[in-house]
Amino acid sequence: METKIIKVTDKGQISLPVGMRESLKIRRGDELFITKNEDAIVIKKVKKEDFSYLLKHSEKVAKRLWDNKEDEVWDNV
User: Fold this and answer.
1) DSSP string spanning 32-52?
2) C-alpha dihedral sign at 14, 48, 42, 58
3) Taking the chain, what is the end-to-end CA distance rounded to the nearest angstrom?
4) What is the pLDDT along the chain (77 residues), one digit of tens a residue?
5) Quick count: other Cβ atoms within 10 Å of Cβ 16?
6) How many other β-carbons are positioned within 10 Å of the β-carbon of residue 28?
7) CA distances, 45 to each of 15, 53, 55, 60 (Å)
8) Distance set, CA 35 to CA 28, 30, 32, 50, 75 (Å)
């Protein structure tokens, strides 16, 4: 495990150390997922497959909502 101490700027920004960026292949424009876990912050590089299960679930929920017969009452308003 690689560990570094970094400083937070006045704007709340941080810089990821070069060695960590290189080893994780984080490039300019990449998206990072950040989450708070009790007293820790976890940052992870986003991969397309990381969120595929969320997309699949959201499509099911949206279909269930769109196919709701009770909601059709608004079609004639």
Assistant:
1) EEEEEETTEEEEEE--GGGGH
2) positive
3) 60
4) 889 999 999 999 999 999 999 999 999 999 898 999 899 999 988 887 666 666 666 777 777 777 766 666 666 65
5) 14
6) 5
7) 15, 17, 18, 26
8) 20, 17, 10, 14, 40
Q: Which residues contact 15 (CB under 8 A, 6 or more apart)?
A: 6
Max Cα–Cα distance, the chain, nearest Å = 61
For residue 75, how many C-alpha atoms fall within 13 Å in the half-sphere facing its CB? 8
CATH number of this structure's domain 1-70, picked from the four choices 2.30.30.240, 2.30.30.30, 3.40.50.1100, 2.10.260.10: 2.10.260.10
- The structure tokens listed for 60 are 């099911």
H-helix or E-strand containing 57?
Answer: helix 52-66
